Amino acid sequence: MIFSSFSFLREHIHLPLCRSRIQSPRRLGTFLLALILLPLSYVLGAFAATVIPAVPASADGNWGLSFQQEGKPPVANATADELKQYNAWYADLSGEKVIYLTFDAGYENGNTPMILDALKKHQVPAAFFVVGNYLETSPDLVKRMISEGHIVANHTYHHPDMSKISDRESFAKELSSLEALYTEITGETMRKYYRPPQGKYSKVNLQMAKDLGYQTFFWSLAYVDWYQDKQPAKEEAFKKLLGRIHPGAIVLLHSTSSTNAEILDELLTKWEEMGYRFGTLEELVQKTAATQSFQQV
């Protein structure tokens, strides 16, 4: 961008390269204008690259977000309208001050009971996206989630990179195997809510999930909380989770995080003090359906 601006000035304004070529006031004015515009283009280019990071335009690959304005939903690498055709969401863009709290649960390491305690204290509903290992090793916690009014949803059985699975049979097996184990443990039918592991997806995946009757849920707020040997400090967590919260946020936290378990009670209090309430993914789906029905009338 910087070099192209310089080339543009040389080509269209004919920058004088030495004093002997400045032969008229008009040319002198052109020269001075060029000297002003060139550093300005450099500053603006550097500012844009720093403040407004690029967001991939294609709806394939890794889920990504760009936070550009405090208190506003981030720009994602797929728009809400693009996701809508696949029965997929990343946020509620109605403007209502509601938070949809979700947890990814790949395994149990002792932090989930404290998380459930905080949710119960505040009467906050959440959705837990679980994998096969979690169901196998922590059936009692899964039953507690259900009994306390939370949604238990599908994060696949083996937590693979689903974007690399192109055939419908293999894709469906990752979801149906988890459904079957969930029913075996709980005696209930699993809600058809799906989150791609690591946020890796493709349009083909989204279509296959839709064809299988699934709603897909990405997120509009998350932070690096999954490294067990490098847990974020309380201050760092609050900076991200309070500074980037916005109306309609689908928040992704990991239930394996000791930081999340320690701060959740206080975090929920702070969000409540900011005027937020907490909704369920089911509410989001119903709200979207109602809006679409109204628009069709």
Major sheet characteristics: 5 strands, parallel
Number of helices: 11
Q: N-to-C SSE series?
A: HHEEEHEEHEHHEHEEHEHEHEH
Poorly predicted regions are 1-25, 37-59
How much of the polypeptide forms β-strand, as a percent range?
5-15%
Please state the overall shape, judged from the principal axes of the Cα atoms: globular
For the record, give the distance between the C-alpha atoms at the N and C termini, rounded to a whole number.
Answer: 48 Å
Q: Mean of residue pLDDT?
A: 84
Relative helix content: 40-55%
Radius of gyration: 25 Å
Number of strands: 12
Helix vs. strand class:
alpha/beta
Any descriptors?
47% helix, 297 residues, alpha/beta, five-stranded parallel sheet, single chain, disordered N terminus, three-stranded parallel sheet
Write up what this structure looks like.
The strands form 4 sheets. Strands 5, 6, 7, 11 and 12 form a 5-stranded parallel β-sheet that branches. The protein has 11 helices and 12 strands. The longest helix has 27 residues. The N terminus is likely disordered. Helix 4 links the parallel strand 5 and strand 6. With 297 residues, the protein is α/β, with parallel strands linked by helices.
